């Protein structure tokens, strides 16, 4: 017979009332309490906590405190990851994040879900579906990503979006529910904000 943890990670219906999952959530809370209360200069100390807590990291990532998650071990980071303030990840199922992903402030990533009917929901039944964010994605602030969603590589999610279904690669998507508004093309290389163009990049070393 599968444990509640095994059912949770497999995406099956389960109850999170067992001691094992409770203890693991408590451990993550204790570690993140330390993470969120370290002095701002203690970057290495914060990163060591994340390396120990997450399922996978690299040597190049930065997560601004405060940060919260359920377990940590279901979060898998690609290289060169940045998250701004108040990222929340409910990682009951795997959350896989590719390389060069940027996340704005107050973003929430949810793998956890509950039955619509009140009786099984009140009885404590729940489920979890994985979330995947592919390489080079930028997620704007106050975005919510719901269970089971994949966001394709190079895509931009506009701020305030509620992402309820898969978003393809190489697009700009925004809204509630989040919808594709246009593709990203090579012409976008020349602009950084609306009609404002980049200077000559070869002459601007800081860019």
Automatic annotation (TrEMBL):
<dbReference type="Pfam" id="PF14602">
    <property type="entry name" value="Hexapep_2"/>
</dbReference>
<dbReference type="InterPro" id="IPR039369">
    <property type="entry name" value="LacA-like"/>
</dbReference>
<dbReference type="InterPro" id="IPR001451">
    <property type="entry name" value="Hexapep"/>
</dbReference>
<keyword id="KW-0808">Transferase</keyword>
<protein>
    <recommendedName>
        <fullName>Acetyltransferase</fullName>
        <ecNumber>2.3.1.-</ecNumber>
    </recommendedName>
</protein>
<comment type="similarity">
    <text>Belongs to the transferase hexapeptide repeat family.</text>
</comment>
<dbReference type="GO" id="GO:0008870">
    <property type="term" value="F:galactoside O-acetyltransferase activity"/>
</dbReference>
<dbReference type="InterPro" id="IPR024688">
    <property type="entry name" value="Mac_dom"/>
</dbReference>
<feature type="domain" description="Maltose/galactoside acetyltransferase">
    <location>
        <begin position="5"/>
        <end position="59"/>
    </location>
</feature>
<keyword id="KW-0012">Acyltransferase</keyword>
<dbReference type="Pfam" id="PF00132">
    <property type="entry name" value="Hexapep"/>
</dbReference>
<dbReference type="InterPro" id="IPR018357">
    <property type="entry name" value="Hexapep_transf_CS"/>
</dbReference>
<dbReference type="InterPro" id="IPR011004">
    <property type="entry name" value="Trimer_LpxA-like_sf"/>
</dbReference>
<keyword id="KW-0677">Repeat</keyword>
<dbReference type="Pfam" id="PF12464">
    <property type="entry name" value="Mac"/>
</dbReference>
